[in-house]
Specification:
Radius of gyration: 23 Å
Structural class: alpha/beta
Helix content: 25-40%
Strand content: 5-15%
Keywords: Hydrolase, Protein phosphatase
CATH topology of the largest domain: Protein-Tyrosine Phosphatase, Chain A
CATH class of the largest domain: Alpha Beta
InterPro entries: CDC14_C, DSPn, Prot-tyrosine_phosphatase-like, PTP, Tyr_Pase_AS, Tyr_Pase_cat, Tyr_Pase_dom, TYR_PHOSPHATASE_DUAL_dom
Organism: Perkinsus olseni
Shape: elongated
Distance between the termini: 49 Å
Largest sheet: 5 strands, mixed
Oligomer: single chain
GO molecular function, one term: protein tyrosine phosphatase activity
Family: Belongs to the protein-tyrosine phosphatase family. Non-receptor class CDC14 subfamily.
Number of strands: 11
Strand order of the largest sheet: 7-8-11-9-10
Length: 438
């Protein structure tokens, strides 16, 4: 399988150009002293390389050739590990991505060639290539397709595409390039800044017992799993209630909570605390009809500050509607959005929602005018946009129990023991997103 739906001529030509430039150089394997039957991709000349190990570890000579210093080799296969919901395996989340950047930057400060290697497991290899190329995109000003072309030029020309977190078959392919393009656009918009991003806070709040929430569009949208009416769920595990979010949401400037799933708590538990609350239910696993889209856009465009959105798991319906807002207001193409959304909050956007976003992309991008450069500006942001969407049978069909399956999978992956009834969000020693204490 190709890393693109249809092999891009631009990536092919870029890879061919890189191959020609390197054809007369001494063998990288001999220069670096690396023993592997797989190619070695030169990501940064004489500095940063990627390859695949033949076995558990990469073998190197103690004495390199051609004037090269002894290589610094590393792998992240067992250090940065994706937590699957079903058959999904990536991309790795934003906190892991940031940790990888820190590791590579530290290694590159030395005077030794740095070699990132992975196993030949196609899932591990796809995540490793994504991370390595992401470093080039964010820290070396390399365009996403050029970054992948440097890997392709070495001979790694097929990558397993990422898939959704649904339990059934997946026909939509989320490629490495899609994820890199989404990350690059988010960086240009200022949604991810390596100099200010706090990975400890990210990892803290993405845990089920600490809120299960993530910024998707920083300063505008938080996605989170739906609160419960009671402290414990049916399995005896801690369940967060509306009251648990008061302090955190006030600190984050949340003014509006939008619920997309069936009622699991009384909305007055938020409104009595001063938050606006809106119910925009549509079936689990389905795509939003036009009335829901139009109402959601209107509510969020008129909200005085940030909006917290949830469905059952805060993944499918939530990511779908926030994505539509991002298309209209930030010119974010659908494929890039799906990549970015999953980097921020793994498991987001499932089943027919993936192709649905691609199908409605044209409607919203026509209303989004962006300038080229580090800062993007949008014209006509608040102008009402009436959308007439006709859902297919598959797009309107409910996937019964999908939200419950997703939340259960996340809990079983993160929680190794039953938690106490104390709210983890209201104690005096819990840091919020801004690094202060509540």
């Amino acid at each position: 399988m190709s890393f693109l739906r249809k092999r891009s001529s631009s990536v092919t030509s870029e890879a061919s150009s890189v191959t020609i430039q390197r054809s007369r150089r001494p063998s990288l394997k001999s220069s670096l002293g690396v023993h592997t039957p797989f190619p070695i991709a030169e990501l940064l000349p004489s500095k940063f390389y990627f390859t695949v190990a033949d076995g558990a570890a990469l073998q190197i000579n103690p004495v390199p050739q051609n004037g090269f210093a002894k290589s610094q080799i590393f792998t992240i296969d067992h250090e940065l590990v994706y937590e699957p919901f079903a058959s999904d395996f990536g991309p790795l989340n934003l906190g892991m991505l940031h940790s990888y950047f820190e590791k590579v930057r530290t290694f590159l400060q030395g005077n030794r060639p740095v070699i990132h290697y992975s196993s030949n497991d196609p899932r591990k290899r796809a995540n490793a290539v994504f991370l390595a190329c992401a470093y080039l995109v964010i820290h070396c000003d390399v365009k996403p397709k050029e970054a992948v072309a440097r890997v392709v030029a070495a001979g790694f020309n097929t990558f397993l595409p990422f898939r959704d977190a649904s339990s059934g078959p997946c026909s939509y392919k989320c490629t490495i390039v899609d994820c890199l393009e989404g990350l690059h656009r988010a960086w240009r918009l200022g949604w991810y800044d390596p100099s200010t991003f706090d990975k400890e806070q990210y990892h803290y709040y993405e845990k089920v017992d600490n809120g299960d929430l993530n910024w998707i569009i920083p300063g505008k949208f938080i996605a989170f799993a739906g609160p419960h009416s009671d402290r414990l769920d049916g399995n005896g595990y801690l369940a967060l209630m509306p009251e648990d979010y008061y302090d955190v949401f006030n600190e984050l400037g949340i003014s509006l909570i939008v619920r997309l799933n069936k009622k699991c708590y009384d909305r007055r538990r938020f409104t009595n605390a001063g938050f606006a609350h809106a119910d925009l239910y549509f079936p689990d696993g389905s795509c939003p009809p036009d009335q829901i889209i139009n109402t959601f856009l209107s509510l969020c465009e008129n909200a005085p500050s940030a909006v917290a959105v949830h469905c059952k798991a805060g993944l499918g319906r939530t990511g779908c509607l926030i994505g539509i807002y991002a298309m209209k207001h930030h010119g974010f193409p659908a494929r890039e959005w799906i990549g970015w959304n999953r980097i921020c909050r793994p498991g987001s956007i499932l089943g027919p929602q993936q192709q649905f976003l691609c199908d409605v992309e044209r409607i919203f991008l026509q209303r989004s005018s962006v300038t080229v450069g580090r800062s993007l500006s949008i014209c006509d942001q608040r102008q009402p946009l009436k959308v007439d969407v006709r859902l297919s049978r598959d797009e309107a069909k409910e996937d019964f129990g999908q939200g419950e399956r997703l939340t259960s999978a996340k809990k079983s992956g993160q929680l190794s023991r039953k938690l106490s009834c104390e709210s983890p969000l209201s104690g005096p020693h819990v840091p919020n997103f801004f690094g202060r204490f509540l």
